[in-house]
Write a structure and sequence with these properties.
By secondary structure, the protein is an alpha+beta fold. The protein has a single domain (about 1-180), classed as Chondroitinase Ac, Chain A, domain 3. It is about 15% helix and about 40% strand. It has helices spanning about 1-25, 50-55; strands spanning about 35, 40, 60-65, 75, 80-85, 95-100, 105-110, 115-125, 140-145, 150-155, 155-160, 165-170, 175-180. The strands form two sheets. Strands 1, 2, 3, 6, 7, 9, 10 and 13 form an eight-stranded antiparallel sheet that branches. Strand 11 (about 155-160) and strand 12 (about 165-170) form a beta hairpin. The termini are far apart.
Length: about 180
C-alpha cells in the first residue's frame, strides 16, 4: 500500500510540474511574463510619412463602439480584431482600438485599464510585416506594463500560414507584437 501511495504521489507531482511548465510557456516558446532582454516591436516596411500616408490612402487607425454586455461583439481596425464575449464586463461599455503608429504592430485598447470577467480575444495580422531577420516562431504578444516600464508576454498562438497572432486579454492596455 505504501509503495502504491508513493507511486501515486510521484505521478501527481510530475503531472503538476508538466502542467505548470506548459502554462509558463508563451506562444514563442519562451516563458510568459517579464522579458529579460529588450524585445523589438514587429515592424512594417517604413511608410513614407506615417499619419499623412494613412490619411492619403484612407487607412483607418481608430475605431470605437459601445458593445452590449449581454450580447458581446466585435471591433476591428487595420489588421487588429477584438472579439468581446457576452458578459466580459457587467455593463454596456465603450471599446476602442487606436493604432498610433502604423510602422509598428502596436495597439492601444480602451477603455484603458478595463478588466474582464471573461477574456477578450485579440488577433493581430502581421501579413505586411517586415520579417527580415525575424524568426516567426519567436513572435509573441505582449502588453506594456507602465509601472515596470517593460513588455510582459501573454499566452498566444502564432499562425504562420495566415500570419496572425491571437491571444486572450484579461485587461486593456497597450499591446504589441514583439520578437526576441
Amino acid at each position: 500500500m505504501n509503495r502504491f501511495k508513493t507511486l501515486t504521489n510521484t505521478t501527481l507531482l510530475l503531472a503538476v510540474l508538466a502542467i505548470g511548465t506548459f502554462l509558463m510557456v508563451g506562444c514563442s516558446g519562451n516563458p510568459v511574463g517579464e522579458i529579460t532582454s529588450e524585445p523589438t516591436l514587429l515592424q512594417r516596411p517604413i511608410l513614407a510619412d506615417g499619419p499623412e500616408y494613412a490619411r492619403r490612402v484612407k487607412v483607418t487607425t481608430y475605431a470605437e463602439a459601445v458593445i452590449l454586455s449581454k450580447k458581446g461583439g466585435e471591433l476591428s481596425v487595420t489588421g487588429v480584431e477584438l472579439s468581446i464575449p457576452r458578459r466580459a464586463v457587467p455593463n454596456d461599455t465603450l471599446y476602442s482600438i487606436n493604432l498610433p503608429d502604423l510602422n509598428v504592430f502596436y495597439a492601444e485598447f480602451g477603455t484603458d485599464g478595463l478588466k474582464f470577467d471573461n477574456p477578450v480575444t485579440v488577433t493581430f495580422s502581421y501579413a505586411d510585416a517586415d520579417l527580415s531577420g525575424v524568426d516567426e516562431s519567436n513572435i509573441s504578444l505582449a502588453w506594456f506594463n507602465e509601472n515596470l516600464s517593460r513588455w510582459l508576454k501573454i499566452d498566444c498562438e502564432v499562425d504562420i500560414v495566415n500570419k496572425t497572432v491571437t491571444g486572450q486579454l484579461k485587461h486593456f492596455s497597450a499591446y504589441g507584437l514583439i520578437s526576441d
